[in-house]
Amino acid sequence: MDPLSEIITLLRPHAALSKPITARGRWGLRYQAHDAPGFTLILAGEAWVTFAGSTPLRLAQGDFLLMPTTPAFSLGSEPGMTGPLLEPSGEPVRHGEQDGEPDFEALGGSFSFERVNAPLLLALLPGLIHIPAAQGMTGRMGRTIRLLAEECTSSHPGKDLIVQRMLEVLLVEALRWQGLAHDAASAGLLAGLRDPALARALQAMHADIRAHWTVAGLARIAGMSRSAFSARFSLIVGRAPMEYLAGWRMAVAKDALARGGKSLERIADDIGYESASAFSTAFRKRLGTPPGSYARMMGEA
């Protein structure tokens, strides 16, 4: 399994809630920061979104905005528009003038991720993914958006289930969108996978997590010197190669412990530790609790 697929598998995303958003005239609203990944798909018209400390961003018909972690933001018909502070919900909302045909339509909501590894895995993704219609409406991304927009306006049986599944597909398409390769702020796993040399090393690590990897060995796979590889990996992925590998091993271990059914010996062998004792020591050092206690805690949650 490739690295991005493995991250998505551990996150196990699903559309927790989605709702139609319509508006007319001048309007604005605000949301507080929350840890659920948020999204907005503009179906008609335009709006302006503003995050703290940043300039307003124009969202037009066909644009898709994905926030793996959702900071506080405002959304309105004009730059700088503010309004009431709202709580996320799955209920349809109408802003601005309540009468007449809306001049703005969107689908907004949030995804739910598996919380066991969410902090680690989300740190490997960009903080914000904005796919303008001009760039995203061609190819697979555009076809998915058009199908989703069509389903949102339909009244077919099973509509809610189809919308949820298509949103999950749209999430994956957004994460592998090629436009992120040109985004200087997208440091993390996605940026590493778009660097041919680093991608070879990342693919090798994920293909055999049990191997006794060294920086020198990974550098050879990348076709670089040890020092150049280490510096480039740290800069682009955002953490040192061995730190990335250790974090990924623990992510796999936490997932196995949360699911249950595997002994510590089996988990240790699966992720490359020579014994359950060595794995337990590393797990406790990194997470502050023994793996057995962690498994019991997750079983009681």
From TrEMBL:
Residues 77-100 are annotated as: Disordered. Residues 199-297 form the HTH araC/xylS-type domain. This is AraC family transcriptional regulator. It comes from the Bacteria. InterPro entries: AraC_lig, AraC_XylS_family_regulators, Homeodomain-like_sf, HTH_AraC, HTH_AraC-typ_CS. Signal peptide: none annotated. The lineage of its organism: Bacteria, Pseudomonadati, Pseudomonadota, Alphaproteobacteria, Sphingomonadales. Pfam families: Cupin_6 (PF12852), HTH_18 (PF12833). Keywords: DNA-binding, Plasmid, Transcription, Transcription regulation. It comes from Novosphingobium humi. The keyword DNA-binding applies. SMART domains: HTH_ARAC.
